[in-house]
Design a protein that fits this description.
Blueprint: H1 5-28, E1 33-35, E2 41-43, H2 44-60, E3 66-68, H3 76-79, E4 84-92, H4 94-99, E5 105-112, E6 115-123, E7 128-133, E8 137-142, E9 148-149, E10 161-166, E11 184-189, H5 193-201, E12 207-210, E13 214-215, H6 220-227, E14 232-235, E15 250-251, E16 254-257, H7 264-267
Parallel strand pairs: 3-4, 10-11, 10-12
Antiparallel strand pairs: 1-2, 4-5, 5-6, 6-7, 7-8, 8-9, 12-16, 13-15, 14-16
Length: 274
């Protein structure tokens, strides 16, 4: 499928409209919160965004199925028939939404032949939109300003300082004694897996380390964006993540990296599984 600029703009508009739905719940604080089987929270904002995106993506591309975090029960037997599909997280950063930190977003990816080829990530509180199309570049748009084409990441490691983004609930002490001691690390805690990856694509940090479960919907759009600036998302063996190839849709621990030319296998130290 060849995505046109018009198609991309329609997907961006859907992400923003879904964000408006989420903001209605966020501003009024009038939402229902439950726990899913995996002990992660889900709210009526998640479900309303999910319903909107599934319906409108089906209208935009009737022949392309939609896989959402909130419909992850679809079996591999059915999914393996898909040459392409939409992979969405209708509200990435549900905990941050509940805690009112503002670090949440809507994520939409198009996956073809098991690789993300389009990614849109929109943060309604920050009014930041990141998007990319495979082999066509990645862009960042802030509020109503014109979109800016993100440059290729050609940063080289100077000295030994590396900035790493981590989740707000992650115990940074876990990394002590695991990462290589030859480097000096600066850590910053930010909610939303997608936002951390976007900030790396924008050159605001070198890597995002994720130790703990995430879903394929958490990484697909971000992977497309990062690859367009010569970054990547890999497991801790520095091998590509997989999409729609396993019964479960849970990612392994991973690293999202900006500059791929850093010696990541050495930097990861004991975390490296190569």
């Amino acid at each position: 499928m060849q995505m046109t600029l018009s198609d991309l703009n329609k997907v961006i508009s859907l992400a923003k409209e879904a964000s408006d739905i989420i903001l209605d719940f966020y501003r009024t604080q009038n939402f229902i919160q439950n726990m899913k089987a995996d002990k992660t929270p889900v709210t009526s904002a998640d479900l309303s965004s999910h319903k909107f995106l599934v319906e409108h993506l089906a209208q935009l591309t009737p022949n392309i199925p939609v896989l959402s975090e909130e419909s992850a029960h679809i079996s591999l037997q059915e999914r393996c028939q898909w040459e392409r599909y939409w992979l969405i997280d209708p509200l990435d950063g549900t905990k941050e939404f509940i805690n009112r930190t503002g670090d949440f977003s809507v994520m939409i990816a198009l996956v073809e032949h098991n690789r993300p080829c389009l990614g849109v990530i929109y943060s309604p509180i920050k009014k930041l939109c990141f998007y990319a199309v495979k082999d066509a570049g990645a862009w960042m748009q802030e509020a109503e300003h014109p979109a800016v084409l993100l440059p290729k990441n050609e940063k080289h490691l100077i000295g030994n300082k590396i900035k790493i983004l981590i989740s707000p609930h992650f115990d940074v002490n876990y990394l002590q004694g695991k990462l290589s001691t030859e480097y000096e690390y600066e850590y910053e805690k930010i909610g939303s897996a997608s936002l951390k990856s976007c900030f790396i694509a924008a050159g605001k940090a070198d890597a995002y380390l994720r130790i703990g479960p995430t879903g394929e919907w958490d990484t697909a759009a971000a992977e497309c964006i990062l690859k367009e600036v010569q970054g990547d998302i890999c497991n801790l063996s520095l091998q590509p993540l997989t999409y729609n190839q396993r019964d479960v849709l849970i990612n392994p621990d991973f690293i999202a990296m900006g500059p791929k030319n850093f010696p990541w296998c050495h930097i990861l130290g004991k975390l490296y599984k190569g």
